[in-house]
Each structure stands twice: as structure tokens, then as C-alpha cells.
Specification:
This protein is mainly α and about 80 residues long. Helix content is about 70%, strand content about 0%. The protein is elongated.
């Protein structure tokens, strides 16, 4: 997969993780619809766990970003 595509997805995930860490209840409530509504309701009732998962999401995505290729082309060089 192209490094720019992966980096774009990583940026989206970092933003989601930041919102989750800062506003766990509100962020989950905004996505509490459709087939994943029960899951979002479960997370909304557990803000500290949700916040911790948001922080872990950001840390994981920063680690992925650090492992990406430095030049355009494949995301990871073999």
C-alpha cells in the first residue's frame, strides 16, 4: 500500500484517538447509531476505559507513522 494512503489513515486515527481521549462520552454519543450503537453505548458508560483506549490509539498510530517509509512508494520497505 502506498505510504501516503497509510499516512492519511494514520492521521484520521490520531484525530479519532485525540477526540476519544479528550471527550470520551460526547465522542461515543455522536456515533451511537446504526449497528454499532450498543457498542458505543457500552463505551459511553465507561469513560475512563474509553479515554485510555483513545490514548493507546494515538500512541499506536504514532508508532505506525514512525515505521513508514521516508519516501513516496510502498509504505514499508522489505
Amino acid at each position: 500500500m502506498d505510504v501516503r494512503v497509510v499516512e492519511s489513515l494514520v492521521m484520521l486515527q490520531i484525530g479519532d484517538g485525540v477526540l476519544t481521549a479528550l471527550f470520551p462520552v460526547e465522542h461515543c454519543a455522536r456515533w451511537e447509531f446504526g449497528p454499532w450503537a450498543p457498542l458505543m453505548g457500552w463505551f459511553k458508560k465507561r469513560p475512563n476505559l474509553t479515554r485510555a483506549l483513545g490514548v493507546a490509539q494515538v500512541a499506536g498510530m504514532v508508532a505506525v507513522s514512525a515505521s513508514l517509509s521516508k519516501v513516496p512508494g510502498p509504505a514499508w520497505k522489505k
